[in-house]
Structure formats: C-alpha cells, structure tokens
Amino acid sequence: MKRFVSEDMPIYEIMKETGADEDLAATAVHEAGHLLAAIRLKLYPGTTTIIPNEEEGTAGHSCHDIVEFPADATDEDIIASGMAQKLGIHSMAGAAALQLMGISEKDSLLGADSDIEAAMRLLGGLGAEFYLDKALSLFHQENNPAALRLLAVQLLLHKTIGAGYAEQIVDVADDEATMAEIDEAIAIQGKGFILE
Which H/E stretch holds residue 134? Predict the structure, then answer.
C-alpha cells in the first residue's frame, strides 16, 4: 500500500536506519503500536511479527492474551469488566503509531480494517475515531515515542520478537535498561532471547 513518506517524517528515520522500504517500515510501526499499547495497558503481550501471513492476508501480527469474553457477553458485561477502553485503544494503536511517525490519518488506516471492526464492536460502537484519539494520547505520553521507535526498529531487525524482549526494549526507552545490557543478554543467551 502506498503511503506518502517524506524525509521530515519520523518513519523516514526508521527506514534510513534499517534499510526497510516504506511498506515494511509501516508494518513494523503498526505492529509496534499494538505491542506498545499491550505493554503499557497491561494486556499480556505476546509474540509480534512482521512476517506476512498470506493465508490470513496480513502483513504482520501481534498476538496478545488480552481477555476472552463469553460469546454471549453484552456491551454492559465488557464495560463492567473495565476492559472496554483498553481493548478499543489496543485495536487502534497500530494506526495511532503510524500517525505519531508522521503518516496522515487517512494513510494510517490503510489495511487496518480488522482493527477498525474490533474498535467499532466495543461500547456499542463508540467508534474507531474515539479509540484512535485515546491511543494517540497514550503514545504522546513521556517515553512512548522513543519506545515505539525502538520496538519498530527491533521488529525490522529481527522480524519477530517476544513479549519479554519487547518489555526490555521499552525499559530502554524508560531509562531502566540500556541497549548494551540487552546486547550482552543476547550474546549470553543466544537469539532465543529475542523470542522470549
């Protein structure tokens, strides 16, 4: 999908640093957005990949053990659980991440049909725009732009990363760890550390 990217956009710096083309960089930023939202909202992040799944028609995927509601759960059940807003923010986090990296709102929604559908199902259809604004607010909080960038770069470098590794990358953005410490752990534990 063609999005407009110029040299003054933060996503361009990610492309330059990793050598990724526009589509792959956009996929990495989108999936990093879902991953960062899952970490910050404590939604039990899982493995995230930018390896396309042609069978499912996806350019990447972020697995999270969010919350399973019974098939007969009503909007009231979801609201009462306190999870509706978190789930809506998570649904629109990919598009919000692209906007934070300079992509227009229109272009940020390209290929986000399943995310939009998920957001529309929550809270009786408050809508994707409501949750997109909430996700943007989350990403504008301190350290989140840096965390998003670091996660996107790591996805571009490794193609698939695990939740434990992702949480350590976020710790770097939060000044609780350094990339040197993470590189040392990889050297000691091997590449499997990245998938943990």
Answer: helix 128-139
